[in-house]
Amino acid sequence: MNKIKSASDLYQKLQSVKPGSVLCHYSMERCEKMFPIVEEINALKKERNAVILAHSYVAPEIILTVADYDGDSFKLSQDATKVKEDTIVFAAVRFMGETAKILNPSKKVLIPGPLTGCSLADSITAEEVKALKKQYPEHTFVCYINTTADVKAECDVCVTSSNVMKIVENIENNKIFFLPDRLMGANLKNEMKAKNIQKEIVLASGCCYVHEQYDPDLIPFFRNQNPGLLVVSHPECNPAIALQSDFVGSTGQMVDFLQKTDKNAPVLLLTECGLNARMQYEMPERTFIGTCSMCKHMKSNSLENILETLKNPEKAVSIELDEITMQKAKKCIDAMFDYASR
Ligand code: 13P
Ligand code: SF4
To answer: Where are the domains of the chain?
Structure first.
């Protein structure tokens, strides 16, 4: 991937990001302040034999200047398996770091951001899943990748937002327990109903505090104000949003969809605002209706704490998991790769 090489190139790219919050305002002065940090990170990566994986929701300067791999959670899981270097610095949240560790266990996996949680992953424990399995002994337990390794270890098949519909459709058992996202689960039920697929789907009660904030009642208002509007949303949003959307998909799938659509159509992109910022600099000629729902966990990653992680890896959050949990969780993740490839 071609990385940005100077502060003025970075400014050229980021000046089209519309300020939704102070984090999204890029001046030349700010880019100039960032650049010495970028150069130090890139030099230290080589010295430490490290790579940086970054989710699409982290600040755009991380993706543009220091990330070796970026994308949605499914792509990053695949990328993690390819890493040859000794250390993975994962600019995202803890569950993504755990997945990388499970898939490439000989690597040191470090998380730079201090807020490593996720409102979905934190909403259910392995003990709760064990109890649910006793209550629903005939159900196949399907977990969203936004879960801890301990929870994955108790489940049968993992899914991401890019493959949840396809995988659940193809699971032989008609009885499914889906966890932890009740909103994604409601979208899943609607999709099965629309395709006339008979599945009895029981849902857990978690939800993403970022996507939950979007209000379906605002969509008719935005459509009225912006003729030809394309509404694009993540399946963690309320089903009343999905039903009014022109496209629903993972962060990566939303980008692919937008690249194929008419450049003149304005876009309402209902997901974490990091993706809005990314789309604004990748497609500066397009109109994106400003939305700002920000994930504090993803946004707690910064150039500063990535540099600190590479300078002092022994002080960083390092993913450590016991052997049995890793083996059981890997089985659940491998089942996803298997279903996704069919
Ligand atoms: P993606 O799988 O689309 O990357 O989503 C991960 C996530 O945390 C969404 O909130
Ligand atoms: Fe978790 Fe929501 Fe943040 Fe994604 S956006 S990491 S689901 S809290």
So the answer is: 7-118+298-318, 121-207+322-340, 211-289
CATH 3.40.50.10800 is right for the domain spanning 7-118+298-318: yes
Ligand 1 centroid to Cα of residue 161, in Å, is 6
Pick from 270, 265, 261: nearest CA to 241: 270
Cα separation, 114 vs 285, in Å, equals 35
Strand order in the sheet with 69-71: 69-71, 50-55, 87-91, 108-111, 317-318
Same CATH topology for 121-207+322-340 and 211-289?
A: yes
The dihedral formed by the CA atoms of 172, 205, 135 and 192, expressed in degrees to the nearest 10 = -20
Q: Is 309 in the pocket of ligand 1 (CB under 6 A)?
A: no
pLDDT digits (tens, 9 = 90+) for 154-191: 999 999 999 999 999 999 999 999 999 999 999 999 99
Six-digit token string for 254: 């939303």
Residue closest to 333 by CA, chosen among 138, 234, 205, 341: 341
Q: Is 83 in the pocket of ligand 2 (CB under 6 A)?
A: no
Ligand 2 atom nearest 296 alpha carbon: 3
Q: Per CATH, the architecture of 121-207+322-340 is what?
A: 3-Layer(aba) Sandwich (3.40)
Number of the ligand 2 atom closest to the C-alpha atom of 295: 3
249-259 pLDDT per residue, tens: 999 899 999 99
211-289 domain in CATH 3.40.50.10800? yes
Distance in Å, CA 5 to ligand 2 centroid: 30
Query: Between 291 and 271, whose confidence is greater?
Result: 271
Cβ–ligand 1 contact at 99 (below 6 Å):
no
Report yes or no: 77 and 305 within 8 Å, Cβ to Cβ.
no
Tell me how far apart the alpha carbons of residues 94 and 81 are, in angstroms, rounded to a whole number: 17
Ligand 1 pocket mutation, candidates 98, 251, 278, criterion most atoms within 8 A of CB: 251
Count CB atoms within 10 A of the CB of residue 212: 16
Is the model's pTM score more than 0.85?
A: yes
**146 C-alpha vs ligand 2 centroid, how far in Å?**
8
